[in-house]
Fold:
Amino acid sequence: MAMRKYGFGQSNSDHTLFLKRRMGKLTALIICVDDMIVTDDDKEEISRLKDYLATEFEMKDLSGLKYFLGIEVARSKQGIFISQRKYVLDLLAETGMLDCKPADTPIVQNHHLAVHLDQVPTNRDCYQRLVGRLIYLSHTRPDIAYAISVVSQFMHSPSEAHMGAVERILRYLKSSPGRGIICSKNHHCRIEGYTDADWADNVTDRRSTSGYFTFVGGNLVTWRSKKQKMVALSSAEAEYRGMAKGVCELLWLRRLLGEIGYPSNSASDLFYDNKAAIDI
Structure:
């Protein structure tokens, strides 16, 4: 209500995003619980907005964005780099794995993790807490998205084998705690997506896993790996469902960019490698 009262409109694509246009310039404010980020190409408007928010709420101005909810932001001539290095190191310290042997990959190939009747259980609260921490870390680490989507499937009944998979993710993080995402200026705003899927790879219920990642202006912006809700009867069906998710993400990005003043005038490319799904 306070933002609408000041002239901001709530985005239809992201309800945590509020936008205001004035004299051809845009002010954007995004909220996460009681933290917010404000960006603008009008310095006077930012100053007025901060004064207004100070009268409505108890707040503290932390000036230029450097650290936000565990995410570190660094700027250079190459662009803006976001990472969670401190978050990773704190997590390794809390789990006693700062001195562990690093792993080359976040998960074993052909892992075949599942729920078995004779499995040895592990501490469920500890498992759920660790996986929850890793899920938040995936905001800046697309390289662990698939591994996290696998271990998060066993939150209700984790075993020692599942905990071993979580520990491998931690050992992989030890090898590259400062890895993150860089956003650079590439003089275009093309929207592109890549999707893929396996078929019936889950040992327990034979459901497939699909994933996508998208680029805007040559920069990686969104990614996801998730088990499909239904059993696919063929590889073409599993791959086609993966493509559908990728298309939905591209359409959402097009709407969002249009709202902030960067409408896409050209088609968005979706890249895939399954001929049957492409033909469909």
User: Anything to note?
Assistant: The chain has three domains: 2-64, 82-175, 186-279.
